[in-house]
Design a protein that fits this description.
Helix content: 40-55%
Number of helices: 10
Distance between the termini: 18 Å
Number of strands: 8
Radius of gyration: 17 Å
CATH topology: TIM Barrel
Structural class: alpha/beta
Number of domains: 1
CATH class: Alpha Beta
CATH superfamily: Alanine racemase
Strand order of the largest sheet: 7-6-5-4-3-2-1-8
Oligomer: single chain
Shape: globular
Length: about 260
């Protein structure tokens, strides 16, 4: 496999081309290195390659990986978070991409206040309407934004996250409307609440160029950086104590990682 530096040169060139097409500054786009099911060594690779954010799916996996990893990166939880895992998650992560209910917002606020934490969050939105995906319905987002602004003083709402439906490479252009919908929803929320929500977490290894053209500021990349992940069976051997956290055993939700 190519070195991480060579891979990142190629990725950054594609980001720059997408930004040029959209009239954006490439400095607006950050890569989140998704290390799901890989060992702690890839965190060091990412850090030494210049990446500053690590994305993990499971609280349990980050719990063992962080102490074995290089210090320095900012850790983001990009997978589903159950309310009974919030306390542990607040000890490990600085930003949560997949907040998908007011009840979860309230739990994060309660424990963050108790623990003296100031977490940053993104509201996950299911813009495609697919039943297999997590996230709020777009029509439920205004109430959630209002709630966090008025009732969650320990929490900073930085923006929104989504994942597009899967399309094969030759049809990747069909992801565009889904990324555009999230950007338009963000713009509408900024206007409605007279607030800034600068972060859009969208785009993975197969569709990040389209996401960047449509306004992504955080793109979640795993396979394109580190190669294919170990099979699900190997993952389960790593986090056997975390069974059921994400609500499924692989499948569609795994794509949120990369």
């Amino acid at each position: 496999m190519e070195s991480i530096d060579t891979i990142l040169d190629g990725v950054n060139a594609k980001i720059a081309a997408a930004c040029a097409k959209a009239g954006r500054d490439p400095a607006e786009v950050e890569i989140i290195a998704v290390t799901k099911t890989h060992g702690a060594e890839v965190v060091r690779e990412a850090w030494e390659g210049g990446l500053r954010i690590v994305g993990e799916n499971k609280v349990q996996e980050a719990a063992w990986k962080q102490p074995m990893s290089v210090s320095g990166p900012e850790w983001h939880l990009i997978g589903h978070l159950q309310r009974n895992k919030v306390r542990h998650a607040l000890e490990l992560f600085e930003c949560f991409h997949s907040v998908d209910s007011i009840a979860l917002l309230d739990r994060i606020e309660f424990l963050a206040s108790e623990m003296g934490k100031r977490p940053r969050v993104l509201i996950e939105v299911n813009v495609s309407g697919e039943r297999s995906k997590d996230g709020m319905k777009p029509e439920d987002v205004p109430a959630a934004v209002e709630h966090v602004l008025e009732r969650c003083p320990s929490v900073t709402l930085e923006g929104f996250m989504t994942m597009a439906p899967f399309f094969p490479e030759e049809k990747v252009e069909e992801t565009r409307p889904f990324f555009r919908r999230l950007r338009e929803l963000r713009d509408a929320m900024e206007e409605r609440f007279n607030a800034s929500f600068p972060r859009l977490s969208m785009g993975m290894s197969g569709d990040y160029q389209i996401a960047v053209e449509e306004g992504a500021t955080w793109i979640r990349l795993g396979t394109v950086l580190f190669g294919e992940r170990p099979k699900v069976k190997l993952q389960r051997s790593v986090d056997a104590g975390d069974a059921g956290e994400s609500g499924e055993g692989g499948g569609e939700f795994d794509r949120i990682m990369d």
